[in-house]
């Protein structure tokens, strides 16, 4: 009987799926050093480290998702974060890409609540009678507005939103204003120093740089009409989102706007076991992702598998099916 039990145990061990326990040391291509993706970088590092002790996922500043897709496609990065609208451009071969890029594979969808937040100083809004985003087009104020860095999809969506109300950067300059391109923390600094009247960026609700800026400057948040939201969603893939009332002390009403969603992506050449283990780490240690920011508490295991623009890596699919998250 003892021999039989020992033999059965050996067979069971041999039949069990292998889980590679070797530490992982990868660079994660993100965006600015102070934006919401830097928070996600912390969470991904903690999740992989908790599941595979000794691992390190190092967040690296980059030009954003568009740049990250190029880095992954060329094999210059192992992990990256990209927005769905950026992946849509890549798959379609639309500008700035010169041809379709089909090598991207998803490991996990991370969020779809990175709303385009339009923060304006109350003094400026009151002076020019601006209560909605569309009012900018009719009032034509000498607006100094900060957008994310050139080439970042948040900058592209902001420009698309301006276009949807009939406003271009040239118009803003003609009115005596200016368009300043800067990373998240730089935007906050410009706003606090009163060198900008409006911040316009995709960030988590209550992101530190926004809270810091609006604590220093009495502010308002501008709502966007459904017509503009629908137009921008059709053009860019940035869906509708409503920022809940009282998310900020100065914002008593719910604010409709467009939003960006993003996921962790890799090159299709990544081996199946590594992709499996990365998906496993993010699922098993999802609390590490949820803890990096209040907005990330909305992340559920099911959301991890809801990337719709590109296919999931076969290794990740294998794990998610075993976990009961995919059919």
Order of helices and strands: HEHEHEHEHHEHHEHEHEHEEHHH
Query: Would you count the extended β strands for me?
Result: 10
Beta-strand portion reads 15-25%
The number of helical elements comes to 14
Q: Which class best fits the helix and strand makeup?
A: alpha/beta
Low-confidence region ranges:
1-20
Largest sheet: 10 strands, mixed
Span between termini: 40 Å
What count of structural domains? 2
Tell me the name of the CATH homologous superfamily of the largest domain.
Periplasmic binding protein-like II
What CATH first level of the largest domain would be assigned?
A: Alpha Beta
CATH architecture heading of the largest domain = 3-Layer(aba) Sandwich
Helix content range? 40-55%
Query: What do the pLDDT scores average to?
Result: 92
Radius of gyration: 22 Å
CATH topology of the largest domain: D-Maltodextrin-Binding Protein, domain 2
Shape: globular
């Amino acid at each position: 009987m003892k021999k039989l039990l020992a033999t059965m145990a050996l067979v069971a061990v041999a039949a069990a799926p292998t889980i590679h326990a070797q530490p992982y040391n990868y660079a994660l291509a993100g965006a600015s050093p102070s934006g919401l993706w830097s928070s996600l970088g912390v969470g991904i590092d903690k999740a992989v480290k908790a599941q595979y002790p000794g691992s390190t996922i190092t967040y690296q500043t980059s030009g954003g998702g568009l740049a990250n897709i190029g880095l992954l496609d060329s094999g210059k990065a192992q992990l990256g974060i990209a927005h769905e609208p950026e992946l849509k451009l890549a798959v379609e071969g639309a500008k700035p890409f010169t041809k379709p890029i089909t090598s991207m594979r998803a490991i996990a969808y991370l969020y779809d609540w990175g709303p385009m937040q339009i923060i304006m100083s109350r003094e400026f809004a009151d002076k020019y009678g601006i209560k909605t985003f569309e009012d900018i087009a009719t009032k034509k104020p000498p607006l100094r507005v900060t957008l994310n860095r050139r080439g970042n999809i948040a900058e592209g969506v902001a420009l698309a939103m301006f276009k949807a109300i009939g406003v271009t950067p040239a118009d803003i300059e003609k009115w005596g204003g200016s368009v300043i391109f800067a990373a998240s923390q730089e935007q906050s600094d410009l706003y606090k120093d009163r060198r900008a009247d409006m911040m316009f960026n995709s960030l988590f609700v209550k992101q530190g740089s926004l809270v810091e800026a609006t604590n220093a400057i009495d502010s308002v948040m501008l709502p966007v009409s459904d017509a503009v939201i629908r137009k921008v969603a059709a053009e860019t893939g940035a869906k509708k989102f409503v920022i809940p009332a009282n998310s900020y002390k100065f914002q008593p009403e719910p604010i409709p706007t467009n939003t960006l969603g993003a996921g962790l992506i890799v090159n299709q050449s990544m081996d199946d076991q590594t992709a499996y283990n990365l998906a496993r780490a993010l699922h098993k240690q999802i609390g590490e992702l949820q803890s990096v920011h209040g907005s990330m508490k909305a992340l559920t295991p099911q959301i991890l598998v809801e990337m719709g623009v590109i296919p999931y890596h076969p290794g990740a699919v294998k794990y998610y099916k075993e976990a009961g998250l995919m059919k």
